[in-house]
TrEMBL record:
This is J domain-containing protein. Gene3D superfamilies: DnaJ domain. SUPFAM superfamilies: Chaperone J-domain. It holds the Pfam family DnaJ. Residues 77-125 form the J domain. The lineage of its organism: Bacteria, Pseudomonadati, Bdellovibrionota, Oligoflexia, Silvanigrellales.
Length: 127
């Protein structure tokens, strides 16, 4: 009878061990999924960088399709879609501010920062 109980104990230990392994596997899958989502977000940011972030004139040219001061103008200047969330727009704004700020890049083009700040203010007010 004692041996029967020991088999049950070893079975329970094995079951618990397998459950722990399964839990670790699920946690690893979750981490990998989060990592993949982060990589996708970084790729979106990278796409924005290559499109227009470095080129003020291109951003200005694209936005001139709309009247200056409108939300459509601001979103086009920021190279964003109407359904882009506020946090992503903020990232775009901060990246461009670092690139275009006269104190950061020794450039005398204050117009770029004026337009960028104007676009950001419009987006903030209308969201």
């Amino acid at each position: 009878m004692c041996s029967h109980f020991s088999d049950d104990d070893s079975f329970d230990e094995r079951r618990i061990e397998l459950e722990k392994k399964k839990q670790k596997k699920l946690e690893k899958q979750l981490r990998l999924k989060q990592k993949a989502e982060l990589i996708q977000e970084l790729q979106k940011i990278r796409e924005h960088n290559t499109n227009c972030h470095h080129n003020f004139n291109l951003c200005l040219e694209n936005s001139n399709k709309y009247p200056r001061g409108t939300l459509k103008w601001a979103l086009e200047f920021l190279s964003a879609q109407a359904d882009t969330d506020q946090e992503f727009l903020r990232k775009i704004y901060l990246e461009r501010a670092q690139l275009w700020h006269p104190d950061k890049n020794n450039d005398k083009n204050h117009l770029a920062m004026q337009y960028l700040n104007e676009a950001w203010q419009i987006v903030k007010k209308n969201r």
